[in-house]
Structures are given as C-alpha cells and as structure tokens.
Amino acid sequence: MRTIDDHPVRRDVPRLFIPGPVEVEDEILQAMTRPMIGHRAPEFTILGETLHRDSQRFFRTENPVYILTSSGTGGMETAVRNGVRENVLCFVNGAFSERFYKVCVANGKNATRVDIPWGEAIKPEKVREELSRGDFDSVTIVHNETSTGVMSPLADIAEVVAEQDDVFLLVDAITSAAAVPIHLGEMATVDFLTTGSQKALALPPGLALLAISERALERAETIENRGLYFDLLAMHKSWKKNQTPSTPSIALMQALKDRLAMILADEDGWYGGHQERADLTREWARNRFALFAESGFESVSLTCIENTRGISIADLNSALRENDMFLSNGYGDLKEKTFRIGHMGAVTIDDTKELLGLIDQFVASR
Ligand SMILES: *Cc1c(COP(=O)(O)O)cnc(C)c1O
C-alpha cells in the first residue's frame, strides 16, 4: 500500500474511486515540482501560451478559455457574476445544480429554480417549456450531476436555448469535461462552461477552466458588480498577454500542461477508457443492484448505484479500505440509499474489475 508523510503519523492512503478528487499518476504529480517561475516573467508567458492553445483545442473552440486558480465553484461564480444580467432560470436535478442556484442567489440575481426529480435528466423540451414562462436572460444547468450519476444532453439543450434571442447558457461541466468530449465549436452557443481540475481532468484540486462564447465579454461589460477576483474583463485583458490577473497556481498549471498534452495525444484512448470503465460498472450494477440514473442518461464519469440489497455502505467502505480502495457513499439524502463509483482519474479497467470483485466478496460475506 502507498503511504504519505502526514505528520505526526505516517498513514496509508487508499486508491480513490470517489468522484473527485481522483487518482493522479506520479508522472503528472512530478510536473508540479518543476522550478518556480515568476508569473510576469517570459517563462510564464510560454507556459500560458501553451495552456491557452491546448485548452482551446481540448474544447474545439476559437474563443477564450481562461485558467482560474480556484476550485470548480469559482468557475460557477465567474459565470454567474459575468453572465447573468438579472433573471436566471436554474434547473435543479441534484446537489450541484442546487449549488448553481445558490450561487445565483448569493450574488444578488433574481433566480427561479425548476426542480426535477433527482435521478432524472434535464430534457431539452422541458428547458423550452420553462423558458417560455418568463423573461429570463440566462439559464444554468449541470451537465453531469455528480450527486445522482446523471448526464443531461448538453448539445440538445444548447440548441433549445439558442432558439431564444439573447438568453445565455451557463454550464457546470465540472465532472463531464475530460470524461466525455465537449466540442464547443461544434455545438450551439454555450456562453460559459466550467470545469474543475480534481475531477475528470485528473489533477489535484485548485484549478478551473472556463470556456466562454463569442458574445460573453460584450455582455459582461454591461453588468455591474462583477467583483474583482472573478472579473471576466480583467481575465481577458491578462489572457491576451498569456497571463492571469493575480498570481496563479503555477505548479498546477505545469501539471495541466502535461495532462492536456496527454489527452490531446490520444483522445480516443482517454475518452474510451472512461466509457469502458463506466460500461463495465453499469453492467455489473444492473446485475447486482440497480442504477439510480434514468435509463439512457447514465453518467460516464461515475455510476450511482441504488443500494437495493440494503448493505451498509459505511461497512463496505471500511472493508474496501483494508484493500487499499475507497468509494463514495450517496450524497446527502441519498446516503446509504445509493453509493457511487467514479470512473475518472488514473484508474484502469483492471482496477475497476478489482474493486467490483471486492464489493462482490463483501456482499457474499453478509
Ligand atoms: C465537485 C463538483 C462541484 C464543486 O466543485 P469544487 O471544485 O468543490 O468547487 C460542482 N459541480 C459539480 C457537478 C461537481 O462534481
């Protein structure tokens, strides 16, 4: 078993099958130990240039992709502060889409929430119907609900939002980006789309990528109280110089550079691996338990399994820990009613098989 120096006791660290943070291979962690560079020095602008180019390739977009030193929630806050004028429609089908609504409220926006049962996806028809009920300038959705294991059809939703004149689409793609291809240049306008480094990008926590549309900056200019740290106009001004407004996490950016290069070098292998782990886990879960997600909308990033056998998930995790593994209990009210297996990060199909085998052993031993 691997260990870390976590003073005063040296302790064991289980392999992560939770939906973030995820396993990061040593090779990528090593990138974080490169010598420190000044963030206004020419060495940094070389790094910035590479990152900006590769993140645009990653999203297949010509528009800016900013690199934020914050967790994913900072990306959500940036989208809300700079993208919502006043009236925002928030689709809530789990804990993270509820957070998006709360970010809107906390930033003084007039937010209307549409609740959809947990486990169900946000459907384009529903978005069209709800949009017609009021005068909204923005919509928020979570592409992949990490609390329920549901992936909503982003491209179809973008089409529907684009039917409206001047309605912005804000997307939390924190657990979908890098688990499935998101080619922004090939779909209807998505105005803000954010990721978080510790999810499918398979890096330590601390960075968020934020992709914007061609019209996003224009709207941001008309919005007051954008704040300072998350001001899009300031970000853009620095971005043009391949820099960031304040001191970024240079170490994490070094790791991001290697990760993006790795993904871009073999996109089929990278995305295919996620799909393979998800397919295997789903098949297993259907045979042994049941899937929590609505059929046809199961997440590729994680599988949320309904605990139809009534096993103790807490005990399961203790047993797994003895074998150097660790998964996630259900989120909030879904605790013990469901459990979640992540497919993100540096895990292989064999690791996944090993995990499922251990769960089988645990179930058989009850
Ligand atoms: C993890 C997660 C977040 C929150 O991200 P932080 O990095 O913890 O701020 C938001 N949305 C989704 C869908 C997530 O999975």
Keywords:
single chain, 366 residues, alpha/beta, Aspartate Aminotransferase, domain 1, Aspartate Aminotransferase, domain 2, 2 domains, seven-stranded mixed beta sheet, four-stranded antiparallel beta sheet, 39% helix, binds pyridoxal-5'-phosphate
Describe the protein in words.
With 366 residues, the chain is an alpha/beta fold. It has helices at residues 26-31, 42-59, 72-83, 95-106, 124-131, 154-162, 216-222, 232-239, 250-265, 267-288, 313-322, 349-364, and strands spanning 3-6, 9-12, 15-16, 65-69, 87-92, 110-115, 138-142, 144-145, 150-151, 168-172, 192-194, 207-212, 290-291, 302-306, 325-326, 328-329, 338-342. It has 2 domains: 15-24 and 267-365, Alpha-Beta Complex (Aspartate Aminotransferase, domain 1); 27-264, Type I PLP-dependent aspartate aminotransferase-like (Major domain) (Aspartate Aminotransferase, domain 2), CATH 3.40.640.10. It has 12 helices and 17 strands. The chain has a 7-stranded mixed sheet, sandwiched between helices. It has a 4-stranded antiparallel sheet with strand order 13-14-17-16, with helices on one face. α4 links the parallel β5 (87-92) and β6 (110-115).
Summarize the structure.
The chain has 12 helices and 17 strands. With 366 residues, it is of the alpha/beta class.
